[in-house]
What does this fold into?
Amino acid sequence: MIDELNALLAQAKDELADARDEAQVEAARIKFLGKKGSLSAVLRGMGKLAPDERPRVGEAVNSVKAGIEDLLERAKKAVAERALDADLRREKLDVTLPGRPQKLGHRHPVSLAMDDIIEIFARLGFHVADGPEIEWDVYNFEKLCFPVDHPARDMQDTFSLDPATLPPPPKGAPDPPTRILRTHTSPVQIRAMLEARKPPIRVITPGKVYRCDSDVTHTPMFHQVECLHVEEGVSMAHLRGTLDAFVKAFFGPHIQTRLRPSYFPFTEPSAEVDISHPLCGGKGCKICKGSGWMEVLGAGMVNPDELSGVGIDPEKYTGYAFGVGIDRLAMLRHGIDDLRLLFDNDVRFLQQL
Amino acid sequence: MKVSLNWLRELCATDLPADELARRLTFAGVEVEGREGRGTHQVVCGAQNFRVGDVVPMARPGAVLPGGQRIGRAKLRGVESAGMLCSARELGLSEDHEGLLILPRDTPVGTGLEELLGLPDTVFELNVAPNRPDALSHLGIAREVHALTGAALRIPQPRLAEGGKRIDALARVDVEDAKRAPRYLARVIEGVRIGPSPLRLQERLRGCGVRPIGNVVDATNLALLELGHPLHAFDLDRLAGSRIVVRRARRGEPMTTLDGKQRTLSDDDLVIADGGKPVALAGVMGGQTSEVSDATTRILIESAVFDAGGTRRTARRHGLHTEASHRFERGADEKMAALALDRCAELLVQLAGGKIAKGVIDRYPSPRPQTRIWVRPARVSSVLGTQVAAAEVEQRLQSLGLQSVEGDAKRRLWAVPSWRGDLTREIDAVEEVARLRGYDTIPVVVPKAGVGETAAIAPEQRITRAARAALAARGFDEALNYSFVSERELLALRPDLKPVRVANPLTVEQAAMRTTILAGLLQNVGRALKHGAQDVRLYELGRVYLPRRSEMHPSGDLAWPVDEPRRLGLAAAGHRVPRSWAAPHDPLDFYDLKGTVDDLLAALDVAGTYSPVEEAFLHPAASAALTVGGRRAGVLGQIHPRAAEAFDVPATVLVAELDWELLLSQARALRETRGIPRFPAVARDLAFVVAADAPAATLLAEIRAVDGKGLLEDVTLFDVYRGAQVPVGKKSVAVGLTLRAPDRTLTDSEADAVIASVKDRLKAALGAEIRS
It folds into this structure.
């Protein structure tokens, strides 16, 4: 009898494996577990068994019944799964059709570079200081140790403003109250020191500057960031360190810096700073004229006269400063070869970024 | 400035090759910007047009001229021609192409031109900083080379054979303004013969970028290029009264300068006058009346020092920039004036013959005292951030010609040579030591950031970042325009604002400081559409320049000269989404722009309200004012057709200009969270018909006004309909209401009560007819 039961289970297994749909599963259920089904037929023979055999056979019956029920359940699931699968495949998308577009905007390379610079200097402990673009001539030149009537002023061709179109100067304004478009961000140094009164001072001053010059490599407006650090014990070694840290953070750790002596009225000693060309890696290419170096910024130790001019004791405190053209840095990073592209705002250019 | 290496090596006997010399000079602060090789090619003669007896250069067959032309044999008009006669230009010597280069008659025929013109040379193009007038000469660069390499310096020692009359008997010099002309020296030479200088010297001048003129003028230029001090030669016989008077010009006094220009002088101009009229603009340019000519036999050489500021003012006033003014503006060496005068006299006699009159006129009432500076080696070390020994400091300063006066290893007083007017303070000496030893000797040390000093991320930075992200998500590209545009364009947008004008603009298109940020953006949009762009969305965040007192920095020494508030400008044209199979290609309209502003406000966590506005540059029926915190925060809308015409853009362009300072002040950089609601919401929709002109803001305000218990979480206006089934003059509006209680699950009857009162309110306040 037990053999009969096991054969039943094996038979159910075979038949359900071939079940195509729910109807076949149901038919199998009736066939095996129905009132007139195979299992019932076997059960009817139980009465003929010796009483001591009954529990063992009863157990076997229950186990075979559970086995068949489980098979039925699984077959049902498999059938449903197959049906769903077939259903899902009935209507297929053309996944190669273009996606539904949603235009994304792009950042301007100069403002992006400016954000990076602000972030890099924040890590070095510098905060952002602000100043006006229409600036007092005195702050743009005299306070920065540009002598009046000196050719150093020719280094920066200045846009002047029609006084008739300007408001009267406010109380306490510098004398004379001549106003110009600032030629560099350096006057913000003066403002930052006047405002802080006492070192340590660590600021950067990003912004627009203006010079009357326009050709392939000059636009009448461009962007600079000035870095100023005044503190006891600050030296030219710190200037080199800050420059190096900045340039590596901005362009990558492989970039080298090199200093050449130069002249700026507001720094002494002064230096022009070259970086190894980010595009050719210092090997020399067409853009860097084969030298492997690009001149990117001017730097130096703050002129002691500038410090005393804002009431800071130059014997006690020293400082360094540097100014860098952000537009040039952005151009180098993105391989932009024409400066004027930066201010044409041609969407065909902007959307490449 | 151009420097001939041959000449330089005569003054400082360095044997460093040109490459190394260029590198050393560059890294000591005298940048070698360029180099050119100079020399001549062997050319031999074949003739075409010459006077009998002339000696001219000829290129032989096979020769290649500097322009690349290869000389061969040819038949010209049936005659064999074996070679070519050359002009100076064909030989690459100058631009002179008026005819053949005529050589001196006594030139031995067949001589290589190289022998006549000097040895092949290298010319450095130097970039000399404005504080280093001492380096504007061959001697000056020789001094640098000496300081850098230790090679011996050979300063010219002119040997003059004076003879004949005493100078006092021949000429008289009066200096009326010794402040503007602190030193004035003169010599007289009689019996000169005007003629060309030897080719070798002409070539030397050309190499340094100076055109040879004649022996006398060439002598002054050679002395100038060698020693750096400007000199001027007058025809003594053309100086009325044989006099020189150094004085201020009289206002309006006329004078014709050497360039042939008639000038009207200012009383701030210093002139060299003779007994009557001005004969030179002091330190800038000579005049025609006293110019040396072929007939000149008696020369007065001037070697003077003119005040830097005054020279600069005169040069600028008359739009002149000359070798002389370039040097005087930077400061001349009072001592060098004497040496240069003698050197010039020596050269002049060598080139033009004549006799040097006995004696020198030297008007030098108050010699400038010698500058002395204390230098502490410890200070040198602390500024440079590296140890520099006292002995090295001393050696370097000595190599530059500074002389020790007194002191010890800790601190020493140095006398500065007359040519280094830029050295007045200890820091100047520090710089000299630094540049001579090389900036590469300075170590690289990153300063310690210092806890607490480290700058926090500024709220402004976070807010700006959030705003930019929102605009990028809305498809706006960032633009950066010039701050100056044409006044016409500004007035087309803001006729009420007179802009600040640039006094010396490069073009009229850049003559006025922008009073609105939209001018540039509209130009950008116009250009993009012309280039065929379908969709343009641009924003710019930047300043405008308003001629009024600055709100944030009104007074005191930190005052800003004008108000420069930042504005956020938006401009958009084209379609809602790019053309695609998957979405309708609808044009942008006002509500797209408003949605962008809504997103922006959401990014800043700022609440704003919109109301109709009359703004000159906006369409009166499709524009709005934005109010934030009770203040006008900007305007937005479709552009006015007149403004569209002024910028040549379609009238469908949408623009917004927002007050970024106000938005910043209202924005929150970091927000607090409230957690998630714990109880479910009830959603109900409501449709009603109201007057077509009832503003949506009023409807929403009425609905919200009902909610006394704070149960109305959200109202979404999801449909507005006009047309069939809605009476004329009416519109159907549908809203979705979300109701929620913070502390319990809202019951249906509570929700019903709220909805009922909303209906009542709409009926009572707006005469609404409720549809569902």
The longest strand of chain B covers residues 618-628. Residues 40-47 of chain B have pLDDT under 50 and may be disordered. The CA atoms of residues 98 and 307 of chain B lie 41 Å apart. Chain B touches chain A through 108 residues (CB under 8 Å).
